[in-house]
Specification:
Strand content: over 45%
CATH architecture: Beta Barrel
Helix content: under 10%
Number of helices: 2
Strand order of the largest sheet: 2-3-8-12-11-9
Shape: globular
Structural class: mainly beta
Number of domains: 1
Distance between the termini: 27 Å
Length: about 140
């Protein structure tokens, strides 16, 4: 199989037998925001000079690839499953991936926040805005 664009992301604490995150969620069109975050801390000295402390990889500042997605949840089960992973380190496979090569496209992220908005009077369909933060070095 080759790398392709999917209409879904895979996101879960658990992996299936093929190494893929178990749960799959639909991404709303235009529902991705990339938030590159450099690993640095800045502060002012007593004389007012800016002091920057950076985490480097070689000579470059390490940049974490945090992201936010807008998802469409079509059942209460999907909603409950997503909320159940809130605050946990989860495996993420973005919507551009090759499912035959799960280890290359799978990354560990912290599911930092979930904002739910109901879009169906029967309370079955939900729009979820999620924030994911790079959790390098951790495992779910």
């Amino acid at each position: 199989m080759a790398i392709s664009v999917h209409l879904t992301i895979r996101l879960d604490v658990d992996l299936d037998g093929d190494g893929l995150p178990v749960n799959e969620y639909r991404v709303i069109q235009g529902g991705l925001a990339r938030n590159p975050m450099p690993a640095l801390v800045s502060e002012r000295s007593l004389t007012g000079n800016l002091q920057v402390h950076r985490l480097l990889t070689g000579s470059d500042t390490l940049v974490f690839d945090d992201c936010a997605y807008e998802l469409l949840l079509l059942s209460r089960t999907e909603r409950d499953s997503l909320v159940g992973d809130l605050g946990e380190d989860v495996y993420l496979m973005r919507h551009v991936r090759d499912e035959a090569d799960a280890a290359t496209y799978r990354e560990v992220m912290l599911l930092k926040s979930v904002k739910l908005t109901n879009i169906d009077p029967m309370l079955d369909w939900w729009r979820a805005q999620i924030e994911l933060e790079t959790s390098t070095g951790n495992t779910p």
